[in-house]
């Protein structure tokens, strides 16, 4: 039987811009300008989402059907689809980290979207690695319409109940590492939205990373999170490691 796989079209990805401040009028003007820009760039591959405006690029990750299908399958809201370029960076880094000794770590797991995509895309179950996931699993970040009254920590664990290789640890990073942490790390995704927490995470985990390990810093290139960039530059710089700032807003480092 022939299996048809849907390739995500650009029009399937919402043109979402996050963290925009200003008056309602200014935001409305931005939306109008974006609509006009999209029309002006029609036919030359415009990309206007996730606070990124570009055109004339290959956007070849949209042709990766395994990635696009995983995104569609695990997206819990439109924002998850909008950050597909960031998700592509994660899966690229994760794929390379499969060759490196150690486990995978994510600090700032939220509802588990990126971990779901990573495990799916990388067929993580077929590896001997463990995936360690840390978060507070409570607070305003989980006040999402449509969610049940189930505690976020219980809801996330239930979603991954059949994946014994994924470990969820509730608490504040880096204190929660005392509840369990890998001795060797091959991949680290840091998305804590807190400079102090990210400093603690890097100081604890970087010494455990194997040579060739991949680090993706979700907040590194965003102006709203400059404090995280300062911390990361200091810690990686002391080790002689430079961080690449990506157009997606992420930072990428190879240990």
Key traits:
single chain, 255 residues, alpha/beta, Rossmann fold, seven-stranded mixed sheet, two-stranded antiparallel ribbon, 8 helices, 9 strands, globular, disordered N terminus
Describe this structure in words.
- The chain is built from eight helices and nine strands.
- With 255 residues, the protein is of the alpha/beta class.
- The protein has a domain at 83-254: Rossmann fold (3-Layer(aba) Sandwich).
- Strands 5-4-3-6-7-9-8 form a seven-stranded mixed beta sheet, sandwiched between helices. A two-stranded antiparallel ribbon has the order 1-2.
- The radius of gyration is 19 Å and the shape is globular.
- The termini are far apart.
- Mean pLDDT is 91; it is low at 1-5.
Topology overview:
Elements: H1 24-40, E1 47-49, E2 52-54, H2 65-74, H3 78-82, H4 84-97, E3 103-107, H5 113-121, E4 131-135, H6 152-159, E5 166-170, E6 185-190, H7 195-205, E7 209-217, H8 226-238, E8 244-245, E9 251-254
Parallel strand pairs: 3-4, 3-6, 4-5, 6-7
Antiparallel strand pairs: 1-2, 7-9, 8-9
